[in-house]
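Quick log. Single chain, no ligands specified.
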Amino acid sequence: MLCALVAGACRGERASLPPGASAGDGASVAAGPPLDRAPLGQLDLRVTLETAGVVVRARGRVLDASCTRAAPTAAEVTIPARPDGAVDAARVAHCARAVARSLAAPGETQVTVTARHQTPHRDLSSTLEAIVGDDRGGPFPDLSLLPPVDRQPPKLAADASWTPATGKFDPDDALVVLVTKVQIVLAGERVVEFDGFERAELSELPAAFARQKRSPEVVVVADESVPYGLIFQVLLASSHAGASRFQLQTLQRAP
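-> predicted structure:
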């Protein structure tokens, strides 16, 4: 999945599911207070990958399964995880389109995404593809990532408020970082080795970035099992090399 996209929001006529209608896979849509279309810049769309599923917030309210209404209680999950625990990417894509068509102002393209530390890259990647789109086709292509919701990363960047964001750039000119189950490779140089993600020692990572050309663009190619917390720390360390935009890709393995 390629995620470095800035384009116009998906626009169209208002299209929402009525209370009790199907979300496309037989799931029931709960009724909640309707939300009006937000003025430009006030949608504040936030997506969080939790253990139980995906929580979608707009204008400070958790959305119900229709993604056009507020959930009855803030503790609800907008899109429950599939039986195998994976993100239901099809319903995430449906939700993103519903928000774009019903709640977002014309030109509203911003979304903020975060996840739990242990969320695998597989789920992060499928969520981003559903929201941001592959090849700029999603309804919310202007994306920023926030630190894991359950664990703060070490303060590696000078600006603690820095959040990595997608941006339009040529990946051929970017700094490529490969993150596997046992190592991190930066521009062809093995800079970190570990036996288990929790034992990864990343203190030398900022210095490794500093040895490379100062590039504002970073492409992170990660194994599908790499946890979100590790990916975010890699992005945070890249800020020392001047990085401000990123792409995420999933490592493709031979069958």
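Residues 1-30, 156-161 have pLDDT under 50 and may be disordered.
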